[in-house]
């Protein structure tokens, strides 16, 4: 009997890559509001949404962060995703896991981190994170705000992706209508025309404006 385990693993990796690509393609404006709000509500100098791949982590809508990506072995967020919940590092410089992190050792670098997972299509793919130059622990209220904002960012991404898919479907329909030898239409509940394709005028000799309603 053939071993299907490699095929199954490849399918899972491909699905994860597809989801990461969907999120990475989102414009920063989708996430920027959540990132800025997270920074303000937690009194943090740095914030971003991270996306964690197989070898690297990269940032979306970064605030105060100059790096675009970092190796996975230095990622705060990769550790957080392994926990699958809120992950906090009160003092990164004294934590051997992160004491060599490029964002920690840099002049004026970060000393504390907290992040909440971003879930997309049923999988944890990144974190909404905030960091500060001072060692500190966030308050319960701040941790709750971060959790709520992470959920909002996830829902915003899902909504944006749905709009994108609808736009593609609409474009395909319009392209089909333009290339077709027939015309397409939409009607309301009273069977009145609410939309007619461009081919209507060519095929009937009537104007679209004269037939709507």
Main features:
single chain; 8 strands; alpha+beta; 7 helices; 213 residues; two-stranded antiparallel ribbon
Query: Level of helix content?
Result: 40-55%
Gap from first CA to last CA: 63 Å
**Overall pLDDT, averaged?**
78
* Overall radius of gyration: 24 Å
* Low-pLDDT regions: 162-167
Widest beta sheet: strand line-up? 3-2-1-6-5-4
Number of helices: 7
Largest sheet, in brief, is: 6 strands, antiparallel
Tell me, what's the shape? elongated
Total count of strands? 8
User: What amount of the residues lies in strands?
Assistant: 15-25%
Class by helix and strand content?
alpha+beta
SSE order: HHEEEHEHEEHEEHH
Describe this structure in words.
Helix content is 45%, strand content 22%. The protein is elongated. The longest helix has 40 residues, at 140-179. The chain has 7 helices and 8 strands, in the order ααβββαβαββαββαα. The chain has a 6-stranded antiparallel sheet with strand order 3-2-1-6-5-4, with helices on both faces. Mean pLDDT is 78; it is low at 162-167. With 213 residues, it is of the alpha+beta class.
How is this fold's topology laid out?
Layout: H1 5-24, H2 28-41, E1 46-52, E2 56-63, E3 69-71, H3 76-83, E4 87-89, H4 102-105, E5 112-120, E6 123-132, H5 140-179, E7 185-187, E8 193-196, H6 199-204, H7 208-211
Antiparallel strand pairs: 1-2, 1-6, 2-3, 4-5, 5-6, 7-8
Helix pairs in contact: 2-5
Briefly, what is this?
The protein is of the alpha+beta class. The protein is 45% helix and 22% strand. The protein has helices at 5-24, 28-41, 76-83, 102-105, 140-179, 199-204, 208-211; strands at residues 46-52, 56-63, 69-71, 87-89, 112-120, 123-132, 185-187, 193-196.
């Amino acid at each position: 009997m053939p071993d299907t385990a490699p095929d199954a693993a490849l399918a899972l990796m491909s699905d994860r890559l597809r989801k990461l690509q969907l999120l990475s393609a989102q414009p920063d404006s989708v996430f920027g509001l959540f990132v800025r709000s997270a920074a303000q509500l937690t009194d943090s100098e740095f914030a971003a949404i991270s996306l964690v791949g197989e070898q690297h982590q990269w940032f979306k809508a970064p605030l105060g962060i100059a790096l675009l990506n970092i190796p996975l072995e230095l990622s705060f967020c990769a550790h957080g995703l392994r926990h699958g919940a809120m992950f906090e590092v009160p003092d990164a410089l004294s934590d051997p896991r992160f004491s060599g992190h490029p964002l920690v050792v840099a002049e004026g670098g970060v000393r504390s981190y907290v992040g909440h997972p971003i879930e997309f299509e049923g999988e944890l793919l990144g974190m909404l994170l905030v960091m500060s130059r001072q060692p500190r622990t966030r308050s319960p209220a701040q941790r709750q705000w971060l959790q709520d904002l992470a959920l909002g960012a996830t829902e915003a991404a899902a909504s944006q992706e749905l709009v994108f898919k609808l736009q593609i479907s609409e474009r395909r329909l319009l392209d089909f209508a333009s290339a077709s030898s027939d015309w397409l239409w939409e009607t309301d509940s009273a069977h009145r025309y609410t939309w007619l394709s461009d081919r209507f005028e060519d095929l009937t000799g009537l104007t679209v404006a004269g037939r709507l309603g």
